[in-house]
Each structure stands twice: as C-alpha cells, then as structure tokens.
Write a structure and sequence with these properties.
74 residues; alpha+beta; 3-stranded antiparallel beta sheet; 1 helix; 3 strands
Length: 74
Amino acid sequence: MLHQIVLAVCMSNQPAICKDVNIAVEIEQNWENMLPQQCQMIGQQKAAEWIKDHPGWTIQRYSCPPHKKKSQDI
C-alpha cells in the first residue's frame, strides 16, 4: 500500500524559504495508516536520501499523514 512521508525543508543559506516535500513510500503490509515506528524508521531513511540529493536544504521535521481513501464515483 502506498503511504506518504512529508518533509518540511528549508534552504540552508536562506532559512526563511521553506516548503513541504511529499515522498511516496510502499509499505508491504496492507495497513490503512503507517504505524508510528514505521514512520520513524522509514522517515529517517527517506529524509537522509532526500538531503543527499538536495545539499542546499535542511530538514526541519518529517511526518506521516493519515492515508486518505480515494473517493469512487458511483
């Protein structure tokens, strides 16, 4: 099941410039929401990968928002 990790990042040389970055992650278990322990472990890993590819940014925090079910047309 696809889940999302949201990184709150700011530019290193201009800390007032910030944005949220959404990263999709696949979780093997078919849980509606990611468990807090999963969020902590996967979030740290994804944050480290992201910052490696974006050296001019710093990560302020990350979160794992609840999964939103897609509405279906009837």
